[in-house]
Design a protein that fits this description.
TIM Barrel, globular, binds 1,3-dihydroxyacetonephosphate, 253 residues, alpha/beta, 15% strand, 11 helices
Length: 253
């Protein structure tokens, strides 16, 4: 099942990095996103919530989408420190990452919580980017596919029409480590995710983009992004520099 027809998405997850001065980096990303690149690939930047409004204003008309890194399941209320999907939408976001492994590990987010967040994103008309991925121990014990399928089963919404959902495969052991799976390992997991999506959503499952994330850099973008059923990348560290982030997107030019 090839997904070459899907418009690829290269997404930057800035995590807990950046301040007001980072608007310069974001402006450089916008500047490098010329019409030729725009025709080939969608760009998304997910800054920390403190910068969402600033970036949202700068992004108007640029074609670069803004996303949140997490949202609460509720639309508003007594949830100190949390951000609602509706608030992200108000700031100009059109996407939100949910279920990142750092949130699952640091905040004890279960699949059920992640699913509730994905539904909250939809309620606010944001596209959820639902993250899944195995730990090193799970990979080494041969359970990567089972772990990913279980996470998908519990974390994804029951319904999807294709464009209203993005899945990101991020092996935990590849995040921020410089390690990456081999193209054949990536292909095996992405094929399993595609099969899961088609099983769950029918034809709509073929239209859901599946991103690979974990130590993506310009130097390995070709190897990782050319794998079947890899419809883009979710980039951490390399998204903090405009040249690196754009260098990854250049694969699609
Ligand atoms: P790195 O690209 O820094 O490995 O991070 C990946 C990631 O977690 C993106 O969400």
């Amino acid at each position: 099942m090839t997904s070459a027809r899907l418009r690829p998405l290269v997404a930057g997850n800035w995590k807990m990095n950046g301040n007001k001065m980072s608007a310069r980096v974001f402006a450089a990303i916008i500047q490098g996103y010329d019409s030729a690149l725009r025709a080939k690939v969608e760009l998304l930047v997910c800054p920390p919530a403190t910068l969402a409004v600033t970036f949202g204003v700068v992004a108007v008309g640029s074609g670069v989408a803004i996303g949140g890194q997490d949202c609460h399941a509720a639309a508003s209320g007594a949830h100190t420190g949390d951000v609602a999907a509706e608030q992200l939408a108000d700031a100009g976001a059109t996407y939100v990452i949910v279920g990142h492994s750092e949130r699952r590990a640091d905040h004890g987010e279960t699949d059920a919580i992640v699913q509730a967040k994905a539904l909250a994103a939809r309620r606010a008309l944001l596209t959820p980017v639902v993250c899944v991925g195995e730990t090193r121990a799970e990979r080494e014990s041969g359970n990567a596919l089972d772990v990913v399928r279980t996470q998908l089963a519990g974390s994804l919404p029951e319904t999807a029409d294709g464009g209203d959902l993005v899945v990101a495969y991020e092996p935990v052991w590849a995040i921020g480590t410089g390690l990456t799976p081999t193209p054949s390992q990536v292909g095996e997991v992405h094929a399993a995710i595609r099969a899961f999506l088609v099983d769950r959503y029918g034809d709509a499952g073929k239209a859901i983009r599946i991103l690979y994330g974990g130590s993506v850099k310009p130097g390995n973008a070709f190897d990782l992004l050319s794998v079947s059923d890899v419809d883009g990348a979710l980039v951490g560290g390399a998204s903090l520099e405009a040249t690196d982030f754009l260098g990854i997107a250049e694969y699609y030019r």
